[in-house]
Amino acid sequence: MDYLDLKVKFLKGFADRTRLEILESIKDAEKTVLQIVSEIHGNQSNISQHLACLKGCGIVTARQEGKYIYYSLRDEQVRRLLTMFDTVLGDVEQQVASCDKNDQCLCGKSELKCLTKRRIISP
Amino acid sequence: MDYLDLKVKFLKGFADRTRLEILESIKDAEKTVLQIVSEIHGNQSNISQHLACLKGCGIVTARQEGKYIYYSLRDEQVRRLLTMFDTVLGDVEQQVASCDKNDQCLCGKSELKCLTKRRIISP
DNA sequence: CAAACACATTAGTCAATACTAATATATGAA
DNA sequence: TTCATATATTAGTATTGACTAATGTGTTTG
Q: Does B70 lie in the same domain as B88?
């Protein structure tokens, strides 16, 4: 696994709604799995899997205390990165939101492909 | 599409090897599609699709000049973000690289699931 | 206008990934 | 030791996303 693969892996760690919700939830204080589960919608198995992912990507760390496992952001760098996402998004928001003709790749593709298809069927 | 969806979309824009290669390629100077295609491995269609994605995610911008279209990073913020990825990765590199037991989700899952399955079949 | 070039789009396929449900593991308490 | 609680893991399924090949669009040039 070369550096680029690593970078992709790290970035994919952030690129999911559930994981962003988890990060939001533990941004200011460490939480146990069940605390996270109850704060955001999720089911325990699903959240647990996402936490494993986040940990594997180096985004969060886990600390065991008795039967509880507390998850928190890995470090200040990660926190700063999360903050920076919001900063940059402020700029980009308009443009990204109005991107409603992108198909292919992830940029809202499937949702829009649906629309497209519907339009084809009944124009 | 709410703010979180937007954020996910934006971040997914970065979370792909080919797109990172494209970004690397245009980091310091705008390039045409064919220039990018020849610099990195890719085929024209594929690169074109990734460029559409990057544009739709607000990561790059395009400027037409005659029959050429020049792509470049959207702005300084995006450039700074790219730089920051590398900074943070420096810290995380060791941990992410050694994450070789994560299955599920994206963290290198499939590759490793293979290993796991092979191990199960012939231990 | 026709040919050549630069790029975008479409359709189809395959691989990657998120989710659910069920089960396993580990820890603390009765 | 047994039960309950907290979390992890597995397996299976459905969705999403990347890639290729073919075709379409727009722009310049002869």
A: no
